[in-house]
Amino acid sequence: MPGKVADFLRATDLEPAEQAALDHGVTVRRGQGYTLRVSAASAVHRQLLARCKPLDCQGGCG
Length: 62
Fold this sequence. Notes:
Elements: H1 4-10, H2 16-23, E1 26-30, E2 33-37, H3 42-56
Antiparallel strand pairs: 1-2
């Protein structure tokens, strides 16, 4: 599903640095899926990954 992560993140309340990284990101088709590529500091990447944790756990974590 193209842009699933980006769509999910756009629906959340992001910090300004996270929003800037997302706004400048690019969705890249690779293999069987899509990758959201952003250029940002490591701390911003970690924050975005933490916000995406619910996507990893849908229907079974907890």
